[in-house]
Structure to design on (536 residues):
C-alpha cells in the first residue's frame, strides 16, 4: 500500500504540494490528473525517495520513505518500477543493457537475464530490438522500452509519469493497452500521472485530481465523469473556463 | 547516498541566506558579507559532495568495471592534445633559454632550464589546464545531460547510487590517468627541447644531458606527478558536481559546463601554488 499523508513540498518560493493526501489501493490503477506544473510528477518522485517532503510523509508498505537509510531505500526501490516521462533510457547503452542494468543490481544470473529481457520486450510487443541504441528508436518505442525496463524487475508497484505524453493517438492507445496488460498479467499496483483524459478513463480504476497542491477529488472513473465540481468538470471537459461556484464540492463521496 | 544527495539538494540555502541578511536576527551579517557567506556555503556543499564521493567508493562492484572505460575516455583520448602542447613547449623553452642566456650563462644550462621547467611546472600545469577544458567539460556536459533527461533519477530508481555509478569511476580514472598523461608530456617536452637544442642551437647531446642532470632530483618528477594527480581529482570532482547539480535544459547544461571549466582551471592554479608552498 502506498499512502501520501499531508505532503508539503516547495521549491524556493513556489509551493507545489500543500497538504497532498492520497491512499493507493492494492492491485488497482490510480490515476492522478491535474494541470501541467501542478505537482503530479513531484508527488510521484516522493514515492521512490527522489524527493523528500518538507512536511508530511509518504508510506510504502508501512515504511516511511524519507526515514529509510541507503540500504532500506535500495530494498524499497527494488519493489517499484518507474516509467519516466521521456523514458529516460541511458544513451550510452543499447536496449538490452538498459533492461539488464536493474537486473544486474538484483544479482540475477546472466542466462536468466537474457530470458527476462526477451519476456519483458515481448510483453510490450518489441521483440528483436535488444541491440538497438535508444537514438534509433521512435518516441513510442522508447516509452515501451521504458515500460519493459520497469517490468523486467517484476515490481510490486509501477509508477507511470505522463506515459502517453507526446505520442500520437494510436501509439498512445497502444501504451494504454500495455499498462492494462501489465496490471492484468503481473498483478501490479500502479499510479499513473497524466493530463490525458482518454488515458485516465481507459487505464484507471480510480482517478484523483490534484489542484493547487491538494487532492481536489478522488473517485472511480464513473464518479469523476459525473462529478458536479466545476474545477474537475472544467479539467475533464477541457473547457477554457469553469462554470459554477468553485467552492461547491462535487459528489459527496470524496474519499482520500 | 541518494538521501545524502537529496539532503544537499533540498537544503534550504535560500532561506538561510535570507535569514542571514537580517542583521538584527543574525549578527553574522555584520561580520561577514553575504557574498562571503555564500562562498562558505558553496565550499560546504562541495566538501559534503566530496565526502559522499569518498563514501561511495565502498561499492567497488559498481564503479570498478566502469572505471576502466573512463580511463580510456578521459586518459588515453586526452593524449593527443597534451602531447601536442608539450611538443611545442619544449621547442619554445629551448629557444627562449638560448635567447635569455645570450653568452652570459653556459649553454648547457638550456638542458637544466628545459628539464626543470617542464617537469616541475609546465607539463603538469598546461596539461592540467588543457584537460580542465577537455575532461571537465566532458564530465559536466555528460552528467548534466543525464540529470536534465532524468537518466540520473532512473539510475536511482534502479537502486544504483549515482555517485558510485557515475562520479567515482570518473574521479578515480582522472586521478590515475592525468599524472600518466603528464609523465608522457614531460617526456615529449624534454625530447622536443633536446632536438631543438641540437638542431637549432649550438649545443651537443652530451652538453644538453649535462645540463639536464646538473640539478636534477627525483623530486622534480614526482612533484609534477603529484600535482597532476591532484589536478585530475579536482577536475573530475568539479565536473561531476556541476553536472549533477545542473538545472533546466540545454541552457543549464551549457552553464554548468562553462562553470566546470572555469572553476577547474582556477582551482588548478590555486593547487599549483599550494603544492609549491607545501612541497618546495
Amino acid at each position: 500500500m502506498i499512502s501520501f499523508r499531508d505532503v508539503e513540498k516547495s521549491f524556493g518560493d513556489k509551493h507545489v504540494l500543500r497538504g497532498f493526501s492520497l491512499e493507493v489501493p492494492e492491485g488497482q490503477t490510480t490515476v492522478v490528473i491535474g494541470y501541467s506544473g501542478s505537482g503530479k510528477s513531484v508527488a510521484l518522485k516522493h514515492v521512490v525517495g527522489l524527493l523528500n517532503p518538507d512536511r508530511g510523509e509518504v508510506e510504502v508498505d508501512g515504511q516511511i520513505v524519507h526515514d529509510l537509510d541507503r540500504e532500506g531505500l535500495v530494498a524499497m526501490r527494488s519493489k517499484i518500477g518507474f516509467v519516466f516521462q521521456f523514458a529516460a533510457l541511458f544513451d550510452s547503452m543499447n536496449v538490452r543493457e538498459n533492461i539488464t542494468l536493474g537486473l544486474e543490481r538484483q544479482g540475477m544470473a546472466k542466462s536468466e537475464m537474457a530470458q527476462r529481457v526477451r519476456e519483458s520486450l515481448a510483453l510490450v510487443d518489441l521483440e528483436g530490438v535488444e541491440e538497438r541504441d535508444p537514438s534509433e528508436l521512435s518516441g513510442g518505442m522508447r516509452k515501451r522500452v521504458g515500460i519493459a525496463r520497469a517490468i523486467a524487475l517484476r515490481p510490486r508497484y509501477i509508477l507511470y509519469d505522463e506515459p502517453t505524453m507526446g505520442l500520437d493517438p494510436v501509439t498512445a492507445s497502444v501504451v494504454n493497452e500495455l499498462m492494462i496488460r501489465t496490471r492484468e498479467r503481473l498483478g501490479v499496483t500502479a499510479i499513473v500521472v497524466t493530463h490525458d483524459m482518454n488515458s485516465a478513463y481507459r487505464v484507471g480504476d480510480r482517478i484523483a485530481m490534484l489542484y493547487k497542491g491538494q487532492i481536489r477529488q478522488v473517485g472511480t472513473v464513473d464518479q469523476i465523469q459525473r462529478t458536479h465540481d466545476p474545477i474537475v468538470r472544467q479539467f475533464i471537459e477541457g473547457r477554457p473556463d469553469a462554470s459554477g461556484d468553485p467552492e461547491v464540492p462535487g459528489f459527496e463521496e470524496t474519499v482520500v | 547516498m541518494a538521501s545524502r544527495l537529496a539532503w544537499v539538494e533540498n537544503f534550504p540555502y535560500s532561506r538561510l541566506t535570507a535569514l542571514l541578511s537580517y542583521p538584527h536576527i543574525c549578527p553574522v551579517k555584520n561580520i561577514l558579507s553575504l557574498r562571503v557567506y555564500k562562498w562558505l556555503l558553496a565550499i560546504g556543499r562541495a566538501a559534503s559532495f566530496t565526502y559522499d564521493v569518498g563514501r561511495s567508493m565502498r561499492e567497488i562492484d559498481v564503479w570498478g568495471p566502469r572505471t576502466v572505460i573512463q580511463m580510456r575516455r578521459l586518459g588515453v583520448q586526452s593524449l593527443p592534445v597534451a602531447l601536442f602542447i608539450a611538443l611545442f613547449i619544449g621547442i619554445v623553452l629551448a629557444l627562449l633559454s638560448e635567447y635569455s642566456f645570450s653568452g652570459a650563462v653556459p649553454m648547457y644550462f638550456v638542458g637544466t632550464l628545459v628539464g626543470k621547467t617542464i617537469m616541475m611546472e609546465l607539463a603538469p600545469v598546461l596539461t592540467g589546464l588543457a584537460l580542465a577544458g577537455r575532461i571537465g567539460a566532458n564530465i559536466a556536459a555528460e552528467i548534466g545531460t543525464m540529470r536534465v533527461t532524468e537518466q540520473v533519477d532512473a539510475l536511482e530508481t534502479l537502486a544504483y547510487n549515482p555517485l558510485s555509478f557515475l562520479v567515482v569511476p570518473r574521479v578515480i580514472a582522472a586521478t590515475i590517468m592525468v599524472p600518466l598523461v603528464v609523465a608522457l608530456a614531460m617526456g615529449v617536452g624534454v625530447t622536443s627541447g633536446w632536438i631543438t637544442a641540437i638542431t637549432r642551437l649550438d649545443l651537443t647531446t652530451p652538453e644538453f644531458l649535462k645540463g639536464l642532470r646538473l640539478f636534477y632530483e627525483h623530486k622534480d618528477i614526482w612533484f609534477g606527478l603529484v600535482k597532476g594527480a591532484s589536478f585530475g581529482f579536482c577536475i573530475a570532482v568539479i565536473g561531476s558536481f556541476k553536472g549533477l547539480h545542473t538545472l533546466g535544459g540545454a541552457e543549464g547544461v551549457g552553464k554548468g559546463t562553462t562553470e566546470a571549466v572555469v572553476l577547474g582551471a582556477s582551482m588548478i592554479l590555486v593547487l599549483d601554488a599550494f603544492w609549491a608552498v607545501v612541497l618546495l
Notes: Residues 248-256 of chain A have pLDDT under 50 and may be disordered. The beta strands of chain A are 2-11, 14-24, 29-33, 55-60, 63-64, 80-83, 157-161, 189-193, 206-211, 214-220. Residues 196 and 220 of chain A are 16 Å apart (CA to CA). The longest strand of chain A covers residues 14-24.
